[in-house]
Write a structure and sequence with these properties.
The chain contains six helices and 15 strands. It is an alpha/beta fold. Helix 1 packs parallel to helix 5 (about 110-120). The protein starts with 7 loop residues before the first strand and ends in a 7-residue tail after the last strand. The structure holds flavin-adenine dinucleotide (FAD). Flavin-adenine dinucleotide binds next to helix 1 and strand 3. Flavin-adenine dinucleotide binds near residues 13, 17 and 34.
Length: about 240
Amino acid sequence: MAKRERRVLIAGGGIGGLAAAIALGRGGIETSVLERSSFTEETGAGIQLGPNATRALATLGILEAIEPFAFMPEAICIHDGISGRRLQSVPLGKSAEERYGAPYLTLHRADLHAGLRTVTQGLAAVELRPNFAVTAIETRGDEVVAKDAAGSEAKGGSLIGADGLWSTVRSLVAPEASLRFTGATAWRALVPRKGLPSPFDAPVVGLWLGPRAHLVHYPVRGGDDLNVVAVAEGGVGSQG
Ligand SMILES: Cc1cc2nc3c(=O)[nH]c(=O)nc-3n(C[C@H](O)[C@H](O)[C@H](O)COP(=O)(O)OP(=O)(O)OC[C@H]3O[C@@H](n4cnc5c(N)ncnc54)[C@H](O)[C@@H]3O)c2cc1C
C-alpha cells in the first residue's frame, strides 16, 4: 500500500498559503491552514497578475474563480511624469494572452483571496483554522507542533511558513534573518473609475515615471475601480 503523506501545517492563509493548500490538496495531501485573521476581512488593494502567475492559477483550477472580478488591461502605457508625454505602450489584452498562453490580469487582492478561499472550500483535504496566530513552533518526536498564544495546538508532519513579509515563522526558524528596507514607500488608493478624466479612464495599466518616484494605476473590481499606487523614496520601512 502506498505510504500516506502526513498532514502539512501552513502558517498563514494569505495568497501563498491558500495556493499551497490547494496545490497540496489537489495532490491528495491534507493541510491545516492556520490563519490569524477571521478570513472575512476585505483588506488590500490592487494586484497585477502576469501570465506566469495566471498560468499557475489555471493549473491549480483557480483562474475560473477569479476571472469574473478580474480586468484584462489592453496595454501598459508609460508616461513622463513631469511633462505627461506618452513614452511607450506595451500591448497586453488578447495579444499578450496569445503570446504567453495565459492572460495578464489586474484585480483587487480581496477578490483574489476570496477566489482562493472558494476553491479551498471545495477541497476536503484542506482544513481552514481562522483566528489561529502562530506564536510558537516545536518538534515533538517526528511531529511539528504549532501553537497560538492561547495554547491551542496544531500538529503535522511538516510546516510551511506562509505568514507574509513580517513572518513569525521566519523569526522563529531563522532569527538572524532580517528585513532590508528598500528605501521607498508605496502609497495606495482606490477610486471609482466612472467619470475619471482622460487618460485615467483608459482600460490600461498607466505608469508615470518621475525623479525618485513613480505612479502606477490600473482597473480592478472588474473595471469598476482604479487602483492607484505612488512609490516614492523615503519612509521608515514599517508595517503599514
Ligand atoms: C491584509 C493584506 C493586504 C495586502 N494588500 C496588498 C495589496 O493591496 N497589493 C499587493 O500587491 N499586495 C498586498 N498584500 C501583500 C500580498 O498579498 C503578498 O505580498 C503576496 O501576495 C505574497 O503572499 P503571501 O502569502 O506570502 O503573504 P500574504 O498574502 O501577506 O499573507 C500572509 C498571511 O499570513 C497571515 N499571518 C501573518 N502572521 C501570522 C501568524 N503569526 N499566524 C498565522 N497567520 C499569520 C496574515 O494574516 C495573512 O493572511 C497584502 C497582504 C495582506 C496580509
